[in-house]
Design brief:
Belongs to the MraZ family. This is Transcriptional regulator MraZ. It is found in: Cytoplasm, Nucleoid. Residues 5-47, 76-119 form the SpoVT-AbrB domain. By secondary structure, the protein is an alpha+beta fold. The protein has one domain (2-141): 3-Layer(aba) Sandwich (Chemotaxis protein chec). The chain has helices at 20-26, 45-56, 63-73, 91-96, 117-129, 131-137; strands spanning 2-9, 15-17, 29-34, 40-44, 77-80, 86-88, 102-109, 111-116. Strand 7 and strand 8 form a beta hairpin. The chain starts with a strand and ends in a 5-residue tail after the last helix. The mean pLDDT is 95.
Length: 142
Amino acid sequence: MFMGEYQHNLDKKNRIIVPAKFREQLGDIMIVTRWLDGCLAIYTQDQWKSVYEKISQLPSTKREARRFVHMIMAKAAECEVDAQGRICIPAPLVKEASLEKACVVVGVSDHVEIWDQTRWDEYYANASEDFEEIAETLTDFF
């Protein structure tokens, strides 16, 4: 399980530190891809296989399914952790998530997300305003 929020900087070579707690679970090679709400998602190789299996079940005859698969799979990349605990994020993914220097690495249950700091702050502030209302719509799940 991934949880917590960590601030890290993206360097000029598009490298970012993956928090040690997350690295222990993610392993030395992880999959990074475009994700929802303008962030990137990081999965372990095993988790990615599960995501791939689910994605491959989507009907290729449905336009929305094809679009979703393209958006997730086209940008996916294997990233290896270096000796300093960093991964190098491919330039297209950096652009996709509008990552600048200041970033937030967030544990989200079954995966990790990387957000541009400004985008995260805005997203979190908006979600916080509606937190109770959101919770009420999800009472069947708790």
